[in-house]
Amino acid sequence: MTEAVLDNASPHWLPRQPKSALDHIPGNDGWPIVGNTFRLLADPTGFAQRMVARYGPVYRNTALGGTSVMLLGPDANELILFDRDKTFSSEQGWGPILNLLFPRGLMLMDFEQHRADRKTLSVAFKPEPMRHYATELDAGIAAAVDGWGGRTVRFYDVVKTLTLDLAATSFLGVPLGAEADRINQAFVDEVQASVSPIRKPWPGTQMRKGVKARAYLVDFFEREIPARRSGDGQDFFSQFCRATDDDGAPLTALAIADHMNFLMMAAHDTITSSATSLVMLLARNPDWQERLRAEVATLDTALPLTEQLDRLVLTEYAFKESLRMMPPVPSIPRRALKPFRFGGFDIPAGTSVGVGITYTHHMAEYWPDPDRFDPLRFTPEASKGRHRFAWVPFGGGAHMCIGLHFATMQMRLLIAHLLTRYRIEASAGSGDAWQVFPIPRPKDGLPVTFVPLATT
């Protein structure tokens, strides 16, 4: 869908800028109609590096149906993500990409509406529900991981199935059952449609598949809502169905379904990507794999693992380093609601702007030898003095990822269960090629072998 169509469908949005409004920003508009979409999707990091080398850290680019200005580096991240002056709209930034697929998702809300819905959603991430999730995740991960021993598996595929099952257990309170495969495919179709070069849901297009997938998922959630409203379930979906806004009114069935659609996608697709990159890096860095295994071995086997996760400090550093090297959301779009100045350029209201997370995470001035896996970058000593917006895999400001602690908890549990059972090995070339957008995934599925550890 084009920006013009979306602007007509969303009359509160600022009108689209005439193309000439950004002529003073250096850049490259690419080919007619598709712009630089194919160049960007083929090699996002290389594309950004080439653009910066030619035009500088503020440049104009046309891709995915619109023209935007990229602002790269920690200062740009702070300006846009922290958004002290409420200059930037997340709704109007993500809208041209996601409005047909995840309308009314938390990312597609601004300011007071975002605050109110985030407050309602936050009930799912309070201490008591998180303890419940930890117990469910621990049992689910242990059961799945037990079946991986002595096998070579496409890790992305098996962990995607696992994380969807875990998201269903945590948020829906029930296994997905017979519909699991169809639900998983629906999320795949939605996410892939978000970067389809054809932005209208014409027959035969990826966008059409994505729109149909959303309709199926919304129907799936709406069918469950009446029973959840009247029940006493403690899972997130049930609590959300019974929740009321600041005026005491329940949320509409469509609002609940759209939030669940977005939350379930985020709770398994981004974690799938993060888990895959971390496992790949541990397979490629056996010294670090051994260090994490030794850390896990210090835990007290007489106590529940879920009560000792905070002791897995090196494991958390390794997770943070994998998020630095391959963030699950490579860039973040926003739209300027009023004019601003950055990097020596006056940028008008209505301009689509982008935050380059992957680019910032590989800036050598903040991350020496940026292609080297080094979890010790995240010790308090190494982090001291580093720009606070040099590492932003979870975003920042009011839109900081609501599920970041859930993701960290799940990753600690997964790594603890893997490393107490197996040595992770991968053949040369495994995971070398990745599709980076919309959410990174290895093109080969990352074949790895889980070699059972010798027991005495």
UniProtKB/TrEMBL annotation:
Its cofactor is heme. Coiled coil: none annotated. InterPro entries: Cyt_P450, Cyt_P450_CS, Cyt_P450_E_grp-IV, Cyt_P450_sf. One of its GO terms (biological process) is sterol metabolic process. Pfam families: p450. Heme binds at C401. The keyword Transcription does not apply. Belongs to the cytochrome P450 family. This is Cytochrome P450.
